[in-house]
C-alpha cells in the first residue's frame, strides 16, 4: 500500500512539474533571458549587466533563438504523454521504462533552470531587498471611504512626509537620475526588450505597497512624453504574466509636470491589487458599453476622463495584435484629453499632463490641470498622481486623512483634473 501511494505521489508531481514546464517555456518565449548571467556578468555604466563571453552560447540559444524554451516545452509534452498516458505509447517498452522517465525529468529540470519569467522574481527579489535594507517598505493603514459608488482606499502613511520631491521641483533644482546605470543589484529584477525597445525592471526603493515595481526605459526618455506602442505592449504583457502566475497587478503612468510624477526618467509603475482590481475598476466594470471599439465616460465621475474596454481575448492574442489594439485605444483616449484641455478655460500652455491606468480589461486616461491640491480645512498640500484616480489616495497624517474625507475625494480629483464639458457629457 505504501509503495502504491508513493507511486501515485510521484505520478502527480511529475504531471504538475511538466505542466508548469510547458507554461514556463511559453512565457520564456515572451521574456527571454539567461537566468545565470549575473554569475560571470559585468555591471557596466552605461549598459547595465553585460553577460560574460563564456555565456554567449546561452544568450544565443535562449535570447536570440529560444531553443532552450522550445526544448523544455517538448520535454514537458513527452513526459505528459508517458504519464497520462498517450494510448499509442501504453503498450510500448518506453512507457514501462523508469530509466527514460528519470532521464527526461533530469533534462526537464536542467532546461527550466536556465531561463525565468521576471514577474515571478518580483516577490522574492522584493523580500531580499527589504531584508538587506536596499528597499524601504513604509507601514500604512487603509481606510475605506465611499463616494459616488467608489469604495476609495485612503491609505494613511506618515512616512510620506519624507517622500522625494515632485517632478517639477526635481527638474528645477537639478537631479541625478536614479534610473540610470549602474543599478543597485538588489533592486534590479531584470531586463526586457520588445519591438526593439529595451527596458529595465526595478523595485521601487520607497514602497508603501509590497511588490511595487517599475518598468523603466533603458535609454533616457522624458516622463513628459506619451506612451509608445512598445511601452504599452510590454506593460500589458507584464499584466498578462501576472495573471498567468495567479496574481493580479495594475499599471499606471504619470505623464507631464502636473501629473504627480516624482522622477523625470520615463517609467510605468505596477502594484498588486485584489482580483476585482483597484476601486475605480469595480465601477468601470459595472458600466454597460454598447460600442466596445470606442472610449466611454462614466456619468457619476465629475472630472474629464476616458475609458476604453479591452476585449478578453486580447490577453491571448499575438504581440502585434496587442500592440495595435492598445495603441488605437490610447490614441482615442489621448484625443479626449486634448479636447478636454481645449474646453478648460484655465488651461495653461505647454505639453499635456495626464494619468494613465491600465488593467487587463481597461485603459483609463485622466487629463490634469494641477499637480497638487490645498485642503481648505487645514491648508495642507496633497500631491495627486494616478493612484488617486484609481481610488487609492495616499495621506500623511490623521488630520490630513480626516480633512480629505470632509472635503470630498471627488471634489479634490475634480480640482486637480478638468471638470467635464458638454461634449464629454454626451459620451456618457
Overview of the structural elements:
With 428 residues, the protein is an alpha+beta fold. The model is unreliable at 43-49 and 166-173 (pLDDT under 50). The chain is 40% helix and 19% strand. It has 15 helices and 17 strands. A hairpin with a 3-residue loop joins strand 13 (354-358) and strand 14 (362-367). Strands 6-7-9-11-10-13-14-12 form an 8-stranded antiparallel β-sheet. It has helices spanning 2-30, 37-40, 56-64, 67-83, 93-96, 98-112, 118-131, 167-173, 229-244, 279-285, 319-342, 386-389, 398-407, 409-416, 422-425, and strands at 42-44, 48-50, 136-137, 141-147, 150-156, 188-194, 197-203, 206-207, 213-217, 249-255, 267-272, 306-309, 354-358, 362-367, 372-374, 381-383, 392-395.
Distance between the termini: 66 Å
Helical residues, percent: 40-55%
Q: Give average pLDDT, whole number.
A: 85
**Which runs of at least 5 residues are low in confidence (pLDDT < 50)?**
43-49, 166-173
How many helices? The count is 15
Can you tag this structure with a few keywords?
eight-stranded antiparallel beta sheet; single chain; alpha+beta; three-stranded mixed beta sheet; 428 residues
In short:
With 428 residues, the chain is α+β, with helices and mostly antiparallel strands. It has 15 helices and 17 strands.
Topology:
Layout: H1 2-30, H2 37-40, E1 42-44, E2 48-50, H3 56-64, H4 67-83, H5 93-96, H6 98-112, H7 118-131, E3 136-137, E4 141-147, E5 150-156, H8 167-173, E6 188-194, E7 197-203, E8 206-207, E9 213-217, H9 229-244, E10 249-255, E11 267-272, H10 279-285, E12 306-309, H11 319-342, E13 354-358, E14 362-367, E15 372-374, E16 381-383, H12 386-389, E17 392-395, H13 398-407, H14 409-416, H15 422-425
Amino acid at each position: 500500500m505504501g509503495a502504491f501511494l508513493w507511486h501515485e505521489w510521484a505520478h502527480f508531481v511529475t504531471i504538475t512539474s511538466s505542466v508548469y514546464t510547458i507554461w514556463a517555456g511559453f512565457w520564456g518565449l515572451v521574456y527571454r533571458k539567461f537566468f545565470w548571467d549575473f554569475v560571470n556578468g559585468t555591471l557596466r555604466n552605461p549598459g547595465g549587466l553585460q553577460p560574460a563571453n563564456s555565456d554567449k552560447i546561452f544568450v544565443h540559444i535562449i535570447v536570440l533563438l529560444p531553443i532552450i524554451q522550445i526544448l523544455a516545452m517538448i520535454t514537458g509534452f513527452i513526459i505528459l504523454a508517458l504519464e497520462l498516458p498517450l494510448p499509442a505509447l501504453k503498450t510500448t517498452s518506453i512507457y514501462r521504462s523508469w530509466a527514460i522517465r528519470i532521464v527526461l525529468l533530469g533534462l526537464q529540470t536542467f532546461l527550466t533552470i536556465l531561463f525565468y519569467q521576471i514577474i515571478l522574481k518580483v516577490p522574492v527579489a522584493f523580500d531580499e531587498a527589504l531584508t538587506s535594507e536596499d528597499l524601504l517598505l513604509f507601514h500604512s493603514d487603509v481606510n475605506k471611504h465611499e463616494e459616488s459608488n467608489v469604495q476609495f482606499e485612503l491609505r494613511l502613511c506618515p512616512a510620506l512626509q519624507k517622500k522625494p520631491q515632485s517632478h517639477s521641483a526635481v527638474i528645477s533644482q537639478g537631479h541625478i537620475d536614479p534610473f540610470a546605470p549602474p543599478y543597485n543589484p538588489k533592486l534590479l529584477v531584470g531586463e526586457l526588450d520588445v519591438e526593439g525597445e529595451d527596458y529595465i525592471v526595478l523595485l521601487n526603493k520607497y514602497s508603501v505597497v509590497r511588490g511595487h515595481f517599475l518598468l523603466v526605459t533603458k535609454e533616457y526618455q522624458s516622463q513628459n512624453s506619451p506612451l509608445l506602442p512598445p511601452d504599452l505592449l510590454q506593460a500589458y504583457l507584464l499584466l498578462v504574466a501576472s495573471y498567468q502566475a495567479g496574481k493580479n497587478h495594475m499599471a499606471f503612468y504619470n505623464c507631464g509636470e502636473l501629473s504627480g510624477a516624482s522622477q523625470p526618467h520615463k517609467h510605468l509603475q505596477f502594484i498588486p491589487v485584489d482580483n476585482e482590481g483597484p476601486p475605480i475598476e469595480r465601477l468601470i466594470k459595472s458600466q454597460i458599453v454598447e460600442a466596445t471599439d470606442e472610449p466611454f465616460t462614466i456619468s457619476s465621475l465629475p472630472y474629464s476622463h476616458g475609458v476604453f474596454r479591452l476585449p478578453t481575448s486580447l490577453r491571448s492574442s499575438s504581440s502585434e495584435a496587442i500592440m495595435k489594439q492598445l495603441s488605437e485605444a490610447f490614441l482615442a483616449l489621448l484625443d479626449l484629453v486634448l479636447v478636454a484641455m481645449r474646453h478648460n478655460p484655465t488651461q495653461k500652455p505647454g505639453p499635456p499632463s495626464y494619468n494613465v491606468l491600465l488593467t487587463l480589461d481597461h485603459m483609463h486616461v485622466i487629463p490634469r490641470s494641477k499637480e497638487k491640491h490645498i485642503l481648505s480645512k487645514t491648508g495642507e498640500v496633497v500631491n495627486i498622481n494616478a493612484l488617486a484616480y484609481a481610488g487609492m489616495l495616499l495621506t500623511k497624517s490623521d488630520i490630513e486623512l480626516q480633512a480629505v474625507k470632509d472635503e470630498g475625494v471627488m471634489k479634490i480629483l475634480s480640482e486637480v483634473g478638468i471638470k467635464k464639458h458638454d461634449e464629454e457629457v454626451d459620451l456618457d
